[in-house]
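Risk mitigation, structural track. In case the binding assays with zinc ion fail to produce interpretable data, a predicted complex structure has been prepared as a fallback.
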Amino acid sequence: MSARATYALLSQRFAREAGSAIRLSNEQRALTATVAGKLNDGAYRMVADPCPCGKPGADLVLCEVDRYGLPLNTVLCSSCGTLRIDPYPDDAGVADFYTRYYQQMYGRAGDKAAYFTKQQAYGERILESIKDKVPAGSFVFEIGCGAGGALEVLQKAGYRVGGCDYSRELIEYGCDRGLSLSWGPPIETLKSLPAASLIYMHHVFEHVRDPLSQLLELRELLAPGGKVLIIVPDVSRISEFPFPAGDLRLFVHIAHRFNFSLEGFRLLAARAGLAVDSLQQRDAHASPEFWAVTSRLSADAKPEVDLHAGQSMLAYLRRTERMRKFRLTRGQFIGLPARIRGKLSRLLGRSRSSPPSIQPDVS
Ligand SMILES: [Zn+2]
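Fallback model:
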């Protein structure tokens, strides 16, 4: 967080002592307490970084606590409207968190076959979006590929595919299905492979601690005419979907360092020497996301700058918080039948066998 950060909490729900915004199991509570301890006692070294849009402008502290109740500040860049957790644990802290706490704290299901099927579903959407832009036979790479369900769809469509992830278990699962997946960091992995015509990230880029450096490196690793496709949650439409039904607190959690605004993403891509070929707002799992296709920027191209992006985002989030309080967001209306079904099934004691009505997150 920069020295110029100003406090502008959206409501008392966003204050440090507010606690978790979701119901936690005993195991989740214990893990959260351990991570909170590491954030508080200096075991995780915290590093402040400016907004990756590169524009000058004050940071506004909107929130002092994450979804799980962790003591983390979320700031809004008053220039571009991107939200980021700042300060944030350094690389060693992030690695410790992902290795030891992330999966269990986020209540991830261990059903790999179901996970693979879910990945195939977004693979179909990716195939649909790229098949006219990336010729069959070219090399396509997924950063954070998990078990490789999406890559399998692309492989069957005639692409040569590769992917990397930090979960050894998931990588093994995908390799057993005949996919060429590697464990390890993306840049090093990509350097040992042919130049990719498409590099994509599905609900991964918002986790990256230093997105500018990553894009700069990816740009150098693309094949001529190659593209980078990035799919991230879209905080600018949280009021419109059953998840998070206007509740910003559900969108703010330790693993997501960023909630990019469209403007912030455009500026970041331009700084990395990438042109945004298309930027589409879409939905998945009843939740908002945006899809950005980028390619190498020609030297003279300059993005148009929206001078009001920061103010617009702030006004939207304040308005949404007021409407959510009175249960007036569109997302709350749409999600109502599922919430009622969930409550009824809990009342009838079937909660253990019923799936949750709303997917809390895809990443
Ligand atoms: Zn910014």
